[in-house]
Each structure stands twice: as C-alpha cells, then as structure tokens.
Amino acid sequence: MSFESVQAYINIVDEVKPLERKIVELLASGGFALRQVSSKLLMPLQTASARLSELHDRGIVEQKGKKYYLTSVDRIEEVKRNRQKIRFDKWVKLGEKENFFSKLEAQKLDEYFDRSGKPRHKSEDIPQSELPF
Is 0.70 surpassed by the pTM of this model? Predict the structure, then answer.
C-alpha cells in the first residue's frame, strides 16, 4: 500500500491518534504479530496491545491468527460488529462464571438486547448505555 493510500485510508476513519497512525502505517506493509509491532515501532508491548485493541474495536484492523492486518475499507463495519459480538459474548460468559446472573437471566437479556449489546426496542424503561458493547 502506498503512502498516499495510507493517508487516504486514515482520512476515511475517525480521528487516528499519533501512536495508532504509526501502527496503521506499519500494517500498510503487511501483517504483523503484537511483538513485531512493539519491536518495530520501539513501543512498549502493553501500549502496542492497547492501541491494536482500540483499532480493532473501531474495525480499522483485524486479527487473523496471531497477526494483525489493516481491514479493507468496505469491511470496517463488519469487523467492528464482529468485535462487538465477541466482546459481548465474553461479557455474558464472565457474568455466568462469576454468578452475576444465571443462564436464564442471560436469555432474558436477549429479549431486550441483541448479541452486540444494542437495545432491540427503544424503551423508556430500559436504561440506555453509552458503552460500545
């Protein structure tokens, strides 16, 4: 991907923070594992992990195996939805494991919220969350 293509890509997505921009520019040349991103950009591992996670949440990057790749522009929304679904399912599983609610209560939640955590029906009785999952 050329520098101009990367610039055009960055202009399409929301604001990209400086450290995220470095990651996007690196991933424009191919797929990299977390440790490779950290090493090539001289970035602490935890910082690289956090920035990749944020980019993944926004659908800008996707993970295939252990490597991260730039998402094609036409798949950003799909990747974002899949990521939200995975995070929501993980949240439900943790809730069940820690006995925050039972499987029956989780099924009851399904009446009100879809698998991405979005309300199925607008209702004044259901508190509206600003969380992305």
Answer: no
